[in-house]
């Protein structure tokens, strides 16, 4: 029996690379071009404007970013819409297919962190470090915690709720936070993944800590990196 090829639904914006029915090959067709998966990462916490995406991915040119957004839209991973007044600006947001890629991104991140080549002190975006917390949380270390924590990185803010050995993170101000970190993603990563003392970072002005200091000290221990595989 010959299988019928479907012609409805999203279309790949180019000829196939692999001509392979494997799901892994299909995944690479969708997000395998350079920057594509990182664009999806940046959209995991909600819609973003073009300039906001560019700010989170400073190494990508405006031309390449435009091409990748067009390709991801054509393949059904994201969509464009215009915000209502008074904003009236165009934003990009993930489709259900795009949001479903979170599991893939987290598992790739967990796998790659086992490489001796992984350097957690390289620059990273706000969305990147927030997603890393959802990836690396050690449920046993989070046992018994029930707290709301806020994060401010320039104009970006996030709210994290630690409860039932899970961490739920949304974009936006955490008005009910018992602890708030203010600084840069890289500085916070230095404390969480680089082992730099909070006291030193706070004293230098690189990282501001408001609220429950004991919780802050515990928080930075909740995300151990996996052992390296050689």
Quick gist of this model?
The chain has 230 residues and is an alpha+beta fold. Helices cover 36% and strands 17% of the residues. It contains 10 helices and 7 strands.
Task: Please render the helix and strand layout as text.
Blueprint: H1 23-31, H2 36-42, H3 50-56, H4 62-74, E1 78-82, E2 90-94, H5 96-99, H6 102-112, H7 126-136, E3 147-153, E4 156-163, E5 166-171, E6 179-182, H8 185-192, H9 198-203, E7 208-211, H10 213-219
Parallel strand pairs: 3-6
Antiparallel strand pairs: 1-2, 3-4, 4-5, 6-7
Helix pairs in contact: 6-7
What does this 3D model show about the protein?
A hairpin with a 2-residue loop joins β3 (147-153) and β4 (156-163). This protein starts with 22 loop residues before the first helix and ends in an 11-residue tail after the last helix. With 230 residues, the protein is α+β, with helices and mostly antiparallel strands. The chain is built from ten helices and seven strands. α6 (102-112) crosses α7. The protein has a five-stranded mixed beta sheet, covered by helices on one side. The protein has a two-stranded antiparallel ribbon with strand order 1-2. Helix content is 36%, strand content 17%.
Fraction of helical residues: 25-40%
How many DSSP helices?
A: 10
Order of helices and strands: HHHHEEHHHEEEEHHEH
- Structural class per helix/strand content? alpha+beta
Please give the order of strands in the largest beta sheet: 5-4-3-6-7
Distance between the termini: 47 Å
Mean pLDDT: 92
Principal-axis shape: globular
The proportion of residues in beta strands is 15-25%
| Uncertain residue segments | none
Query: How many DSSP E strands?
Result: 7
Radius of gyration: 19 Å
The description of the largest β-sheet is:
5 strands, mixed
């Amino acid at each position: 029996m010959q299988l019928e090829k479907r012609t409805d639904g999203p279309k790949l914006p180019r000829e196939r690379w692999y001509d392979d029915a494997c799901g892994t090959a299909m995944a690479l067709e969708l997000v395998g071009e350079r920057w594509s998966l990182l664009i999806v990462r940046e959209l995991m916490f909600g819609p973003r404007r073009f300039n906001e995406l560019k700010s989170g991915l400073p190494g990508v040119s405006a031309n390449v970013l435009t091409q990748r957004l067009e390709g991801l839209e054509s393949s059904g991973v994201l969509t464009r819409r215009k915000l209502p007044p008074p904003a009236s600006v165009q934003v990009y947001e993930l489709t259900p297919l795009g949001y479903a890629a979170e599991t893939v991104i987290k598992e790739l991140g967990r796998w790659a962190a086992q490489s001796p080549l992984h350097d957690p002190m390289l620059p990273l975006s706000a969305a990147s470090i927030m997603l890393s917390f959802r990836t690396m949380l050690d449920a046993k270390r989070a046992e018994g915690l029930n707290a709301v924590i806020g994060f401010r990185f320039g104009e970006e803010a996030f709210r994290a709720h630690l409860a039932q050995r899970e961490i739920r993170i949304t974009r936006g101000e955490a008005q009910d936070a018992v602890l708030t970190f203010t600084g840069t993603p890289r500085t916070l990563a230095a404390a969480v993944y680089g082992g730099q003392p909070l006291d030193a970072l706070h004293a230098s002005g690189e990282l501001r800590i408001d609220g429950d200091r004991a919780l802050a000290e515990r928080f930075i221990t909740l995300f151990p990196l996996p052992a390296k595989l050689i």
